UniProtKB/TrEMBL annotation:
Protein name, as recorded: Ribosomal RNA small subunit methyltransferase I
Native species: Desulfobaculum xiamenense
Taxonomic superkingdom: Bacteria
Subcellular location: Cytoplasm
EC number: 2.1.1.198
Stored Pfam families: TP_methylase
Family of the protein in this entry: Belongs to the methyltransferase superfamily. RsmI family.
Length: 285
């Protein structure tokens, strides 16, 4: 940046996931010159500044437990003409990190919000994993309860998009098992320790989780591919066969059995689900 002094604004600054060289010159200038720096963890922010040799003027704690209380204080500082930078522990703020409430408040009051883009774990994993990048849906951290995971994955899995989310090491395999239950046989990539010394991309399938060898160390970004193309391509054919067999009559289980004899690559669960989608036309027991 060429400015000697930052103009008054909230600067949303992306910081390195692990490799310090990923900090852009623009981000460095903003962090060095902002009058107020909001940090999710002030200790980690201090370590980042020290590691990057950036002069520090102190930090203001800003995390999920105090964001609502801090918003008015930050807005007042902006209205007084101060420059404010916001950083998360790593990567791009707001994506599974605090900041949305503040950014929304600034926009509603006509205060400038300036993105300073850079490292982002979801995009870093997506661009290197080899699974279809578009369309994709980022889910943040999955809920703790399995029932909530099922609802979330069911809703977004139905779109056919690649799914990207974060998970903690102590819940990783449990969450993948739930994903397998909901999403079926899809490709999965576990991206571990992105941009760090031990960066690793581990590949497998949700229907063969036992074959995965995942070191339970570090931070994880999960990418689950869309349904297999062969299933998407054959859906119309399956529906045609399903309608034909339903017209022949019989109980649902008999219709499903006959369909599976004619169409390969689908499970009985899949066919029952399509029967349910057809609603009132479904044969009755």
């Amino acid at each position: 940046m060429n400015e000697e002094v930052l103009r008054p604004a909230l600067y949303v600054v992306a910081t390195p996931l692990g490799n310090a060289d990923d900090l852009s010159p623009r981000a460095r200038f903003v962090l060095a010159n902002a009058e107020v720096v909001l940090a999710e963890d002030t200790r980690r922010a201090g370590q980042l500044y020290q590691r990057l040799d950036i002069p520090s003027h102190g930090f203001v704690s800003f995390h999920e437990h105090n964001e609502d209380q801090r918003v008015e204080h930050v807005v007042s500082a902006l209205e007084e003409g101060k420059s404010v930078a916001m950083v998360s522990d790593a990567g791009t703020p707001l994506l599974s990190d605090p900041g949305f409430t503040l950014v929304r408040a600034c926009r509603q009051r006509g205060l400038a919000v300036v993105p300073v883009p850079g490292p982002s774990a979801p995009l870093t994993a997506l661009c290197a994993c080899g699974l279809p990048p578009l369309p994709f849906t980022f889910l943040g951290f999955l809920p703790r309860k399995d029932s909530d995971k099922v609802r979330l994955l069911t809703a977004h899995g139905a779109t056919g998009a690649t799914l990207v989310f974060f998970e903690r090491k102590n819940r990783l395999m449990e969450s993948l098992a739930v994903a397998a239950q909901v999403l079926g046989a899809r490709e999965v990539c576990i991206a571990r320790e992105l941009t760090k010394t031990h960066e690793e991309f581990i590949y497998g399938r949700l229907d063969d989780l036992d074959a995965l060898d995942v070191p339970m160390l570090g931070e994880f970004t999960i990418v689950i591919g869309p349904p297999a193309e062969v299933e998407v391509a054959e859906r119309d054919e399956l529906l045609d066969v399903l309608r034909e067999e339903r017209e022949r009559g019989g109980k649902p289980r008999q219709v499903v059995r006959r369909v599976l004899e004619r169409v390969e690559g689908w499970s009985s669960k899949d066919v029952y689900a399509l029967l349910n989608e057809l609603g009132d036309e479904t044969p009755q027991e």
